[in-house]
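Quarterly update, task 2.4: adenosine monophosphate-bound model.
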Amino acid sequence: MNYILMGPPGAGKGTQAKKIVEKFGIVHLSTGDMFREAKKSSESIRKFLVSGQLVPDEIVVNMVEKRLEKDDIKKGFLLDGFPRTVNQALELDKMLKSKNIKIDVIFFIDVHFEEVVKRISGRRVCSCGASYCVNFISPKVKGKCDACNGELIQRSDDKENVVKDRLDVYEKQTSPLIDYYKKTELFVDIDGLKSESEVFEKINKYIEAKKIVF
Ligand code: AMP
């Protein structure tokens, strides 16, 4: 089964994605993670990320297309952070059709902007992948990861001046995509204001139910 996970920055996509891929043994395709890796060796990619701007569609689409050629995606995959524009969605439709792959569910984690700003401003991450929000889920020791005792840092694109730009980008370029997908029967709206475990429970139930139907 293949899924798309959508939602504004700070909606909890990364946290939910980790739980989903772990539970269902599928591949996590996060374009944000791919670009965070790419920015280490590419100055042009780094510039888009630090300014909160989207990487141009043709670069993202190419990257995803190449990734979808790898064998491991046959286990099923979760697209996280892609597509992010209507054009990317149209390109995705084309590439999936040509590869004879179908998407089973599109999950949208719905969180209003005020909450998103609160969450992002408090987000601290560890290089092991763990994520905390100092306003809600504080680590046991301040500044240290509960899982590996690593240093917790604020993502450069979570800093206040960049967050505003990311939210503007989301509003202008990604919101129209929600309307595009809402018209399809694959779209599932999840209340992202619920707790982390309640959100996962809802997604989990949905996936289990779909697995029986298919
Ligand atoms: P994320 O971790 O998903 O918030 O992504 C971090 C950054 O990577 C974004 O702010 C963009 O600069 C870039 N990025 C990730 N996914 C995409 C995408 N689908 N299209 C364009 N840029 C992207």
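Highlight for this quarter: Residues 83 and 90 are 9 Å apart (CA to CA).
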